[in-house]
Design goal:
heterodimer; A: 387 residues; mainly beta; Jelly Rolls; 40% strand; globular; B: mainly beta; 2 domains
């Protein structure tokens, strides 16, 4: 069976005959796409790639765990996953490394890179954490990538990358339980119809009730249109902000400002859910949302620890009182770039809100400086996944 | 919950479908793709971690396919497919290393590991997209620490969590 195409849900008109070819073109195609959407999981398990100090390096993915639309070729281009269907792709990476040089010094960062919409190759930093002393360090990242020009070998592509600053060459770790990893999955179309309600999937009318165009438009056209173009959002920080030192993790963290509504800050917002005034994302429809936040800052000399959080206001959480869901604090290196992250799947009602929050502890109470340029910017991603 | 991952509807030519056929082909197909499969749980009581320690989630937020086994701490996948697991935890203040570790049918995946400090409650989160066989493979949430330390449940914003979402057939 051929691969499905990006659905274009058509409007049914009054007294239009509901014929099998139209149902196949609309329903069968959409079900085929949504049930087995483009998805890739690649790992490095055959080699231990050597990583140069303080140099962002793409990771060779020598093992495929999933590649449903054949966007990756181990033999010809093992670091790249090419987008095979236009859309937003939710990408996640994991990078493990044991610092064998001077354990406990330097940092490790996972990154996601690639080419979007035919632009220049760019790397987007994720977690950047001090190398653990005497034990592996594993950093993670998530990024929404826009695959507009598609096709293997010629289109936009996605990569996992790593940065380490141990001061010497280091090899990536791989074993049965710990290995470099990149996943990418189609999260929705780049353009579509909004706002639409979450599909209710009504039972088909039973005679003598007639099947009409209103039913078909609600339960076929709008259902397809919603599911291929759900709420998808990503913002990265684009304005300077100081993150004040706090000695203890607060119940509600300091809100991270993205800084503007420009394309440099808001890279996806299919439902117009972001307010630059309040630095708040508001759920446009109810459902289960994947949410990822990361806070990237340059620490001061007295850096102690650092955390990222998602500040949530929802009747479903904390008895309806606003609070921050923290991803856990980690140690922060002195006078360096530090990035921590958090991810959750949140059950939200329409109107519930999410803000990105940060925490930074400095022994001299100095501020951290949030990064607005380069790879390690603060980032918030929200993707609707289910009703 | 009765819906299952859909077959691609065929709409056969020369066949006079009944409303129930359309319910199977359209309503149930899009119904499953809208609702998907979700499992979410949290832990609100403290627990001591040392080495690899399964987390004893005590609050099931949603489990429409009844995959959770409170005795084993395992969530059984109802259907074959690709699922993404997200999990995380916080620990009491201590200078230790900790990992977030999704376990699938006995295999541990060490997906995030960081150093924590004695100044603030440490912790980390991770995600894993993995293939699971329906009715056979299970998920368990595990945390690893380099020394004995307690899970931190002193604040609503720091309780351990695990979430599983069906991504694709």
């Amino acid at each position: 069976m051929p691969l499905p195409v990006l659905p274009v849900a058509t409007t049914w008109s009054s007294e239009e005959l509901v014929l099998a070819p139209a149902l196949r073109a609309q329903v069968s195609n959409a079900v085929a796409l949504l049930a087995a959407r483009p998805m890739f999981i690649g790992t490095q398990t055959a080699a231990n790639q050597v990583i140069i100090d303080s140099t962002t390096t793409t990771i060779t993915l020598d093992t495929e765990l999933a590649d449903t639309w054949s966007g990756h070729q181990i033999d010809t281009d093992p670091s790249r996953y090419y987008g095979m269907l236009p859309g937003y792709y939710l990408c996640e990476a994991t990078v493990p490394l044991v610092d064998t040089g001077s354990p406990g010094t330097g940092t490790l960062s996972a990154q996601i890179g690639g080419v979007q919409a035919g632009g220049a190759q760019t790397y987007f930093g994720g977690m950047r954490t001090p190398n653990n002393n005497g034990h592996a360090t594993t950093a993670t990242a998530a990024k929404l990538m826009v695959m507009q020009n598609v096709g293997y070998g010629t289109g936009d592509y996605i990569q996992a990358a790593v940065f380490q600053s141990s001061g010497s060459l280091q090899s990536l770790t791989n074993s049965a339980t710990k290995f470099p990893y990149l996943s990418a999955r189609w999260a929705g179309a780049i353009a579509g119809t909004q706002p639409l309600i979450v599909p209710t999937n009504d039972a088909w009318p039973v005679p003598p009730t007639l099947l009409g165009h209103v039913f078909m438009n609600k339960n076929v056209r709008d259902t397809i249109s919603y599911l291929i173009y759900p709420p998808v959002f990503e913002a990265q920080q684009a304005a300077n902000q100081a993150l004040a030192s706090q000695s203890s993790v607060p119940a509600t963290g300091t809100t991270i400002t993205m800084g503007s509504n420009s394309a440099s800050a808001i890279s996806a917002d299919t439902y117009g859910a972001w307010s630059n005034t309040t630095n708040t994302w508001t759920a446009p429809v109810p459902g289960l949302y994947y949410a990822y936040g990361q806070v990237g800052l340059t620490t001061a000399a007295g850096a102690v620890s650092h955390a990222a959080g998602l500040t949530v206001n929802s009747a479903n959480y904390n008895s309806g009182s606003t609070y921050t869901i923290w991803g856990g604090t980690m140690a922060a290196g002195a006078s360096t770039v530090s990035v921590n992250n958090v991810r959750r799947r949140l059950r939200l009602n329409a109107g519930d809100t999410i803000q990105l929050a940060g925490f930074y502890n400095d022994s001299t109470s100095a501020n951290g400086s949030l990064n607005v340029a380069g790879a390690w910017r603060s980032r918030l991603i929200v993707v609707w996944e289910a009703a | 919950m009765s819906l299952s991952p859909p077959l691609i509807p065929v709409f056969p030519a020369g066949y006079g479908p009944l409303p129930a056929d359309f319910d199977t082909w359209v309503q149930d197909s899009f119904g499953f793709l809208t609702a998907q499969v979700v499992f979410r749980a949290e832990q609100h009581t403290t627990q001591t971690l040392n080495g690899f320690t399964p987390i004893t989630y005590d609050t099931i937020l949603e489990d429409p396919y009844s995959g959770w086994n409170a005795f084993t701490g395992e969530w059984l996948a109802p259907f074959s497919g690709w699922y993404e697991i997200t999990l995380g935890h916080s620990i009491a203040t201590a200078t230790v290393i900790t990992e977030a570790v999704p376990e699938i049918s006995g295999t541990l995946y060490e997906m995030s590991e960081v150093t924590c400090t004695s100044s603030n409650e440490g912790g980390t989160s991770a995600s894993l997209l993995a293939s699971m066989v329906g009715g056979i493979d299970y998920v368990r949430g595990v945390a690893w620490t380099s020394a004995s330390v307690s899970i931190d449940v002193s604040s609503e914003g720091r309780v351990p969590w695990i979430e599983v979402s069906f991504i694709s057939q």
